[in-house]
Structure formats: structure tokens, C-alpha cells
Amino acid sequence: MSDAIDYGNLMHRAMRSLIHDVLTDVQANGLPGDHHFFITFDTTHPDAAIAPWLADRYPGEMTVVMQHWYDGLDVTTEGFHVTLNFGDAPEPLYIPFAAIKTFVDPSVEFGLRFENAEDTASELSVVQEQTAPETPKPADAPNAKEAGPADVVSLDSFRKT
């Protein structure tokens, strides 16, 4: 037994479980109201599956938008499959939950950011915005809105050294 509680990993599991639950609900019932998601993920994650041309175009990370059109959403315990439209070309993706770097729902000013500091202990920042969330604008979403700054709480500030 360890002499410390690993809050960082416990938070990661809880937040990935939240994403799983949200996407499972969307799979069953569709996106309610104005909800939509900006999901940034690591395209080099060994379990991520994207078209080679997308991997070439986004060699490190990619932000996708689930909003007006998506198809084939299938949520598993480890990740989700979804087909998204890239310039009128539908492309299937598999995004493991472990590859997700940010998950933002701008309609309710909610977001999560997973950070990995130099491949050592992972950190999680929970973003609960007071203003519209700051989200990267995907290259294939020219009408996506730029947003203001967000309040970020890092687990580092609570960690004993």
C-alpha cells in the first residue's frame, strides 16, 4: 500500500468517466439543445484511429467538433467511434478516452483539460468558466467562435512536495 493518495489519477478516471457518461447519453438520445463539444486529442496515441491524411495534417493533436452533423457514435469503455465531416468528406475516427487532452461544451461553459507534464505524473485541470470557454478553432470549422479566458484550477497547487 502506498503512503499517499493518488488524487491526480483518481481525478483523471472520474473525469474520463464523466466524458464516457455524457457521450453514452448522446449516443442514446442525441445532442440536447445547444450542446456541442470541442474535443482535442493526441493523434499519436497508439489506440487512436484516424485516416492517414488526417494524421499527416495533424501530427500531434487535433480538435474535432461534434455539433450539427456526426454519425455512427459508438461509445465503449475505452473510447468512442464517430464519423465526422471534413470538408464534405465523412471520416470515421476512434478516439480513446486516454488520448483526450480537452473536452469542452461551450453551450454551458464547461470544460476539462488533461495535462501530461513531460510524460511523468499526469495532471488534470478542471475548467469551469465564468465566461465563454477558450477553445482552439479547428481548421475545418471556419465559423467556430473564439472565446475569452477561462479560470483553470491545477492540481499542482494542492500537491505537497
Describe the protein in words.
The chain is α+β, with helices and mostly antiparallel strands and 161 residues long. 18% of the residues lie in helices and 34% in strands. It has two helices and nine strands; from the N terminus they run H-E-H-E-E-E-E-E-E-E-E. It has helices at 7-29, 52-57, and strands at residues 37-42, 61-66, 71-75, 79-85, 90-96, 100-105, 110-116, 122-128, 152-154. It has a six-stranded antiparallel β-sheet, covered by helices on one side. A three-stranded antiparallel β-sheet has the order 3-4-5, covered by helices on one side. Strand 3 (71-75) and strand 4 form a beta hairpin. The radius of gyration is 16 Å and the shape is globular.
List the helices and strands and how they pair.
Layout: H1 7-29, E1 37-42, H2 52-57, E2 61-66, E3 71-75, E4 79-85, E5 90-96, E6 100-105, E7 110-116, E8 122-128, E9 152-154
Antiparallel strand pairs: 1-2, 1-6, 3-4, 4-5, 6-7, 7-8, 8-9
